[in-house]
Amino acid sequence: MIKKLVATAAFACAAFALPATGHAAESENVIIKYTADDAIFKQLSKEDNVYLNEEQQFISLPKQKLADTAIQQAIKRGSVTYIEADYKRQASNLQEHLKMWDAVDLGLPKFTSSLRPKKETVVAVVDTGVDYAHPALKDYVLEGYDFVQDDADPMDEQGHGTHVAGITLRGANYQGIKILPVRVLDEQGAGTDSHIASGIYYAVDNGATVINMSLGGQGLSQTQRDAVLYALERNVSVVVAAGNESEEIYNKYPASERDVLTIGASAKKKALTDFSNFGVEMDLVAPGQNIYSTMPRNLDRMDGKRDGYTAMDGTSMASPFVAGIVGLIRSSYPELSYEEVELLLKSQAKRPANNDFDVNAGFGHVQLQNFTTDKQVFLLNTTYLNEGADAIQVGSYGYSEGTIEVIAGGKSLGSQEITKNGMLEFALETPKQQEIAVTAILKDKAGNVLDKATRTTPIRTKDVVLNVKNEKNENAEITVATLYGVKDDELEQLSMFIETNTKTGDIAFSTATYDEYDALYISAVADNAMYARKVNAQETVTLNAEQLNKISMKNTLFNYPKEKRFEKLYEVMPPIHVPTAVIDGHAMSSLLPINFLENPTVYVDSGNYDFSFIDMGKYHAFLTMSDVDTAKTKTIDFRNTGILTRIHVDTSQYMSHPLLQLHFEPVKVGHQPLKIGVPVDAIQPTYITRGTYDMYLHSYFMGMPVMSDAVKNVRVVNNRTLYFISGEQTTHEFGR
Fold first, then answer.
1. In a domain, 707, yes or no
2. Of these residues, 86, 105, 127, 313, which one is catalytic?
3. Residue among 134, 160, 163, 586 flagged as catalytic
4. Which domain holds residue 280?
5. Would residue 728 count as lying in a domain?
6. Is 316 labeled as catalytic in the residue annotation?
7. Cα-atom radius of gyration of the chain, to the nearest Å?
8. H/E element holding 428?
9. What gap in Å lies between CA 308 and CA 166, rounded to an integer?
10. Same structural domain for residues 53 and 116?
């Protein structure tokens, strides 16, 4: 069973793939390195299509010649040191890139040859850093900053940012732009909102006109949003990747930010790749599969060539194409604002069939063959509305005068005069309904209609509103809240809110199909307490600390002695406590862990819960206390979990790759995985409470969760080894 996972922090948006490079034809020749005492290779040099370097003792010849008897005998004699493919290589600056499918698909050859840069535009690559010594990049990279190590050396230790930087230059065809490297993601491709926000501020304050962010994660971040708005207010174009989970963009940041350019990924013969995210927040689509670009040579392990170039998949690859294109436009037309460039790209994109907007393609696929700034644009830019106070955005370009009127749901929102190119906003109170008809009308001074745009716009309604109060009867800081629905006795996650910097006040959940479910449930973590409750649609749910039960924990594996040798352990991986509520037979986890160092206490709503502890520090362990009635129980003693069982996880059948990590997680049958788990260790076992589990092996690539293999209904009574083989399992007991 394969399941895709959702990142709950900021990760580089590259899909897990080991694609062919696609930049050159398959090699027809092989290179044979031979020893000095074999004369057969000198004789072969007289044949066609053979090259001999006699001094260095290697020969290139057609690969079919390997079957010749003379060569086979030389191999048997030990005269051959190694044999490898004789690949054709690109020039180090990738100038031949305009012949590649992605450049042709975008129309880069004609576009880049028609523009004349008037100034250099700085494009900030906010990512894992950039290999500024790479031969294809060194002449284009400025001095930058590393917010991970807090120094002025943004060298890429992961590879993602270098690949993105190369694509950015390809989008501009190496003209009119310079790369500002800003390292905010570590060697695993992960980073914090504080580092990302700091990187955005740094980029703006150090001259960036364009910022590319091929990163993102689940949940909104006000800290990061403040930085993005800081950039937009200073006329900086912000281009971001849509993400690679094949999910809606909603509640993923920064992709869900309205005023950035959110880019999805297309393939050679496909409008949208299977991995690309989608939704009403999508702006444009660009090539994002099998994209050839730069890679630090010491990290170039994907195609086996180790030449500093490779192909990768992901919306991370689509976004920098657009960032480079925007950079070249703004260097050629420095008078244009970020809004004007956005309107020009959207109006000239290849639109979805019979529609001006599509949730899979946004305003269309970027097309530049006939790009021009000499045109008129009228565009209804708003693609969704939120219930309550909101605004409709309408863009115009190339009109020196005129008025715009907006009608929503048959009601006029008024008219505004055009004073410059860009966006105008029309405020409204959005009604509680699934969608609304919106029409924007452009008129000249005499009142004649020049253009009109109409769209049926979806509305995100506030179906269930959650408010949590702490012990002081103040709004609690909510870190995660989830709305579930039950249909045909199956629990489904309908909507999830993750606030990486916490949120106080109301959280509204929208589900247009709530009436199709037999029951609705909500769970939340606020102020280090978990709440879970059955709710009704159209209900405002207020959870108050006075309603909670205090549960004290004793004798967990995490209560290490207060010794100096454990100090670093606490810093690296504090103990993790994950309560799971079981209501009406349906298990709902807190989804985010709650951390404690010793004597943990948790405040929970009344009900039957499972309590779990996860140790990824000194020990690898999962402890579970099941079906605890929190209304009657005040203390949980984990000595009562019974005998612990050792599990060894065998992953020898999995591909070994330096950027691939595996994490093991046992989950009680019927519960959802938390998608964290413990690192797989060939020597160290994992201790778990006896019982029946669904076993998960989570795969992470460059720090980003990619997929899970699940082995269902494994009964754990004795110590055993668990073999994972592409979702299948066999077990072997090795003791009692």
1. no
2. 127
3. 160
4. 95-347
5. no
6. yes
7. 29
8. strand 422-430
9. 11
10. no
